[in-house]
Automatic annotation (TrEMBL):
Organism per entry: Arcobacter venerupis
Subcellular localization: Cell membrane
Residue spans crossing the bilayer: 12-32, 44-68, 74-94, 114-137, 149-174, 186-207
GO function term, MF aspect, one: amino acid transmembrane transporter activity
Chief place where the protein resides: membrane
Name the record gives this protein: Threonine/homoserine/homoserine lactone efflux protein, LysE family
Length: 209
Protein backbone atom coordinates (compact mmCIF):
# COMPACT_ATOMS: atom_id res chain seq x y z
CA UNK A 1 0.00 0.00 0.00
CA UNK A 2 1.43 3.34 -1.09
CA UNK A 3 0.83 5.53 1.97
CA UNK A 4 2.71 8.45 0.43
CA UNK A 5 0.30 8.50 -2.52
CA UNK A 6 -2.71 8.42 -0.19
CA UNK A 7 -1.16 11.19 1.90
CA UNK A 8 -0.80 13.36 -1.21
CA UNK A 9 -4.43 12.69 -2.15
CA UNK A 10 -5.53 13.46 1.40
CA UNK A 11 -3.64 16.78 1.47
CA UNK A 12 -5.17 17.77 -1.87
CA UNK A 13 -8.63 16.83 -0.61
CA UNK A 14 -8.17 18.55 2.77
CA UNK A 15 -6.80 21.82 1.37
CA UNK A 16 -9.37 22.12 -1.42
CA UNK A 17 -12.19 21.29 0.97
CA UNK A 18 -11.03 23.75 3.60
CA UNK A 19 -10.56 26.60 1.13
CA UNK A 20 -14.06 26.02 -0.21
CA UNK A 21 -15.33 25.79 3.36
CA UNK A 22 -13.95 29.12 4.55
CA UNK A 23 -15.46 30.99 1.63
CA UNK A 24 -18.78 32.26 3.08
CA UNK A 25 -21.92 30.63 1.75
CA UNK A 26 -25.52 30.12 2.85
CA UNK A 27 -24.54 27.98 5.85
CA UNK A 28 -22.15 30.67 7.07
CA UNK A 29 -24.91 33.26 7.28
CA UNK A 30 -27.37 30.80 8.84
CA UNK A 31 -24.86 30.23 11.66
CA UNK A 32 -24.34 33.97 12.12
CA UNK A 33 -28.09 34.52 12.27
CA UNK A 34 -28.67 31.77 14.84
CA UNK A 35 -25.78 32.85 17.04
CA UNK A 36 -26.60 36.55 17.06
CA UNK A 37 -30.30 35.99 17.73
CA UNK A 38 -30.20 33.09 20.16
CA UNK A 39 -26.65 32.81 21.51
CA UNK A 40 -23.65 30.48 21.29
CA UNK A 41 -25.51 27.29 22.19
CA UNK A 42 -28.00 27.84 19.38
CA UNK A 43 -25.16 28.57 16.96
CA UNK A 44 -23.34 25.37 17.91
CA UNK A 45 -26.49 23.26 17.56
CA UNK A 46 -27.09 24.83 14.15
CA UNK A 47 -23.50 23.93 13.24
CA UNK A 48 -24.19 20.30 14.22
CA UNK A 49 -27.25 20.27 11.96
CA UNK A 50 -25.17 21.56 9.05
CA UNK A 51 -22.39 19.05 9.73
CA UNK A 52 -24.77 16.05 9.91
CA UNK A 53 -26.35 17.10 6.63
CA UNK A 54 -22.91 17.38 5.05
CA UNK A 55 -22.05 13.92 6.40
CA UNK A 56 -25.04 12.45 4.56
CA UNK A 57 -23.90 14.08 1.32
CA UNK A 58 -20.33 12.89 1.94
CA UNK A 59 -21.51 9.29 2.37
CA UNK A 60 -23.79 9.51 -0.68
CA UNK A 61 -20.98 10.92 -2.80
CA UNK A 62 -18.49 8.35 -1.58
CA UNK A 63 -20.95 5.50 -2.14
CA UNK A 64 -21.70 6.80 -5.63
CA UNK A 65 -18.00 6.97 -6.50
CA UNK A 66 -17.49 3.42 -5.22
CA UNK A 67 -20.23 2.19 -7.58
CA UNK A 68 -19.06 3.87 -10.78
CA UNK A 69 -15.29 3.86 -10.36
CA UNK A 70 -15.13 0.46 -12.14
CA UNK A 71 -16.29 2.15 -15.36
CA UNK A 72 -13.32 4.24 -16.47
CA UNK A 73 -15.27 6.18 -19.12
CA UNK A 74 -17.99 7.28 -16.72
CA UNK A 75 -15.39 7.97 -14.05
CA UNK A 76 -13.31 10.19 -16.36
CA UNK A 77 -16.45 11.97 -17.59
CA UNK A 78 -17.31 12.82 -14.00
CA UNK A 79 -13.80 14.12 -13.44
CA UNK A 80 -14.22 16.43 -16.43
CA UNK A 81 -17.58 17.66 -15.15
CA UNK A 82 -16.09 18.06 -11.69
CA UNK A 83 -13.26 20.16 -13.12
CA UNK A 84 -15.80 22.39 -14.84
CA UNK A 85 -17.61 22.79 -11.52
CA UNK A 86 -14.37 23.76 -9.76
CA UNK A 87 -13.74 26.36 -12.47
CA UNK A 88 -17.26 27.66 -11.83
CA UNK A 89 -16.59 28.00 -8.10
CA UNK A 90 -13.28 29.73 -8.87
CA UNK A 91 -14.99 32.18 -11.21
CA UNK A 92 -17.58 32.97 -8.53
CA UNK A 93 -14.92 33.53 -5.87
CA UNK A 94 -12.59 35.60 -8.05
CA UNK A 95 -15.46 37.92 -8.99
CA UNK A 96 -16.94 38.24 -5.52
CA UNK A 97 -17.00 41.80 -4.25
CA UNK A 98 -15.56 42.87 -0.94
CA UNK A 99 -18.35 43.23 1.58
CA UNK A 100 -19.00 43.42 5.29
CA UNK A 101 -19.94 39.88 6.34
CA UNK A 102 -21.30 41.08 9.67
CA UNK A 103 -23.13 44.16 8.42
CA UNK A 104 -26.13 45.09 10.56
CA UNK A 105 -25.32 42.24 12.93
CA UNK A 106 -26.60 43.36 16.30
CA UNK A 107 -26.67 40.69 18.95
CA UNK A 108 -29.98 40.29 20.73
CA UNK A 109 -30.38 36.86 22.30
CA UNK A 110 -33.84 35.35 22.54
CA UNK A 111 -35.16 32.06 23.79
CA UNK A 112 -34.70 29.27 21.26
CA UNK A 113 -35.64 25.61 20.98
CA UNK A 114 -32.48 23.64 20.23
CA UNK A 115 -34.35 21.16 18.04
CA UNK A 116 -35.41 24.03 15.80
CA UNK A 117 -31.81 25.25 15.58
CA UNK A 118 -30.63 21.77 14.55
CA UNK A 119 -33.37 21.45 11.91
CA UNK A 120 -32.60 24.91 10.57
CA UNK A 121 -28.94 24.03 10.10
CA UNK A 122 -29.74 20.59 8.67
CA UNK A 123 -32.20 21.94 6.11
CA UNK A 124 -29.86 24.76 5.12
CA UNK A 125 -27.21 22.27 4.02
CA UNK A 126 -29.36 19.37 2.79
CA UNK A 127 -31.36 21.65 0.46
CA UNK A 128 -28.16 22.92 -1.16
CA UNK A 129 -27.32 20.44 -3.98
CA UNK A 130 -23.96 22.16 -4.51
CA UNK A 131 -22.71 20.35 -1.41
CA UNK A 132 -23.25 16.95 -3.01
CA UNK A 133 -21.72 18.09 -6.30
CA UNK A 134 -18.62 19.38 -4.53
CA UNK A 135 -18.10 16.20 -2.48
CA UNK A 136 -18.70 14.04 -5.53
CA UNK A 137 -16.09 16.07 -7.41
CA UNK A 138 -13.51 15.83 -4.64
CA UNK A 139 -13.95 12.07 -4.26
CA UNK A 140 -13.64 11.60 -8.01
CA UNK A 141 -10.19 13.16 -7.69
CA UNK A 142 -8.91 11.25 -4.66
CA UNK A 143 -10.67 7.86 -4.76
CA UNK A 144 -9.37 5.25 -7.18
CA UNK A 145 -10.14 1.55 -7.71
CA UNK A 146 -7.25 0.62 -5.43
CA UNK A 147 -8.11 3.03 -2.58
CA UNK A 148 -8.74 0.92 0.57
CA UNK A 149 -12.06 1.36 2.38
CA UNK A 150 -10.42 2.54 5.58
CA UNK A 151 -8.62 5.30 3.64
CA UNK A 152 -11.96 6.36 2.18
CA UNK A 153 -13.40 6.34 5.70
CA UNK A 154 -10.60 8.63 6.87
CA UNK A 155 -11.44 11.03 4.03
CA UNK A 156 -15.13 11.07 5.01
CA UNK A 157 -14.51 11.51 8.74
CA UNK A 158 -12.01 14.30 8.13
CA UNK A 159 -14.40 16.26 5.90
CA UNK A 160 -17.23 15.87 8.43
CA UNK A 161 -15.03 17.08 11.30
CA UNK A 162 -13.68 19.96 9.19
CA UNK A 163 -17.22 21.22 8.54
CA UNK A 164 -18.27 20.83 12.17
CA UNK A 165 -15.19 22.40 13.76
CA UNK A 166 -15.06 25.28 11.27
CA UNK A 167 -18.72 26.13 11.84
CA UNK A 168 -18.25 26.04 15.62
CA UNK A 169 -15.20 28.28 15.17
CA UNK A 170 -17.42 30.76 13.31
CA UNK A 171 -19.78 30.80 16.30
CA UNK A 172 -16.92 31.85 18.58
CA UNK A 173 -15.54 34.36 16.06
CA UNK A 174 -18.79 36.30 16.26
CA UNK A 175 -18.29 36.88 19.98
CA UNK A 176 -14.70 38.14 19.57
CA UNK A 177 -14.65 41.55 17.94
CA UNK A 178 -10.91 41.56 17.13
CA UNK A 179 -11.00 38.15 15.44
CA UNK A 180 -14.21 39.05 13.62
CA UNK A 181 -12.60 42.23 12.29
CA UNK A 182 -9.51 40.39 11.03
CA UNK A 183 -11.61 37.71 9.35
CA UNK A 184 -13.82 40.35 7.74
CA UNK A 185 -10.80 42.31 6.44
CA UNK A 186 -9.09 39.34 4.82
CA UNK A 187 -12.04 37.30 3.50
CA UNK A 188 -11.73 38.87 0.05
CA UNK A 189 -8.07 37.79 -0.17
CA UNK A 190 -8.99 34.32 1.12
CA UNK A 191 -11.60 33.96 -1.63
CA UNK A 192 -9.10 34.95 -4.33
CA UNK A 193 -6.48 32.48 -3.05
CA UNK A 194 -9.16 29.78 -2.86
CA UNK A 195 -10.17 30.47 -6.46
CA UNK A 196 -6.59 30.10 -7.69
CA UNK A 197 -6.04 26.85 -5.79
CA UNK A 198 -9.31 25.29 -6.93
CA UNK A 199 -8.51 26.27 -10.52
CA UNK A 200 -5.11 24.61 -10.11
CA UNK A 201 -6.83 21.44 -8.87
CA UNK A 202 -9.18 21.46 -11.87
CA UNK A 203 -6.28 21.91 -14.30
CA UNK A 204 -4.38 19.09 -12.59
CA UNK A 205 -7.35 16.75 -12.99
CA UNK A 206 -7.68 17.50 -16.69
CA UNK A 207 -3.92 17.18 -17.24
CA UNK A 208 -3.80 13.76 -15.56
CA UNK A 209 -6.63 12.46 -17.75
Amino acid sequence: MDLQLYLQDFLLLAIAHFLALISPGVDFFIIINSTLKYGKKAGIITAFGIAISNLLYILLALFGIMIIKENIYVFNSLKILGSIYLFYISYYLINSRKRDLFENSIKHEKNSRLVNDFIKGFLSAILNPKNFIFYFTMFSITVEKSTPYFIQTIYAVWMFLAVLLWDIFIVYIISLENVKRIFNNYISLIEKVSALFLSFVAITILYNL
